[in-house]
Amino acid sequence: MVKVLGHRGMGEGNDENSLLSLIRAVQIGADGVETDVWLTKDGSLLLAHDEDLKRLYGVDAKVKEITYKELKKIGLISDEKLTTLEKLYLELPNNAIVNVEIKDPDAAKFVGPLVNSFNAIERTIFSSFHHECLLDVKANTPDAKIGLLIGEDAKGKDPVGYLEELLNRYKPYSLHLPVQLFDEFGLETGLAFLRLLRNNGIKIALWTINDPELALKVRQHCDFFITDNLLSILALKGGR
Fold it and tell me: How far apart are CA 212 and CA 82, in angstroms?
């Protein structure tokens, strides 16, 4: 059965990627969470989607140019606001799946050893649009599961040839495909494409799937749903 992961916890919004949002997603029934990581100026692995703090916190500062200590001093480190990857693994249940999306390639060499220190490699997927940095993850943590995020980079390319090239180079655990692929190729062609990938041993994570009707049609062909509409997508798990 498809596993449901809360996108940034309970979904995109004012409390996204906060510790409370991530924990709440699992408490209401999600199999796990998707979160984003950046490296701060002093080397902390901070959970944040954007490169800066303006959208959510009104602070004109880039994550890479500020320290954890400075963030704490201005009141942005708390369970309701910013937290770290270490804190997430300390507080999340030991059976929760974690999809760590690496936004900052400089964080890649640090995420694996940290997750390994919690004996959580088996339940963690490291994904990124920066595919090269996933090789750094594997170099530091050979048992790590890596997932290739596919987005704008695939536009205008032959999808089969492009993905075949990526699969040969990176040998990923999973492909993280945008839900818009069904708009571009149609439902039947899209599903045939997913079947082809899965028949070759590739796990499929679909992002960001928020439409319950579409989710019903594609769930047998996916391994992971990443969703902002957590309650509605979880409601589907009651049906087979």
Answer: 30
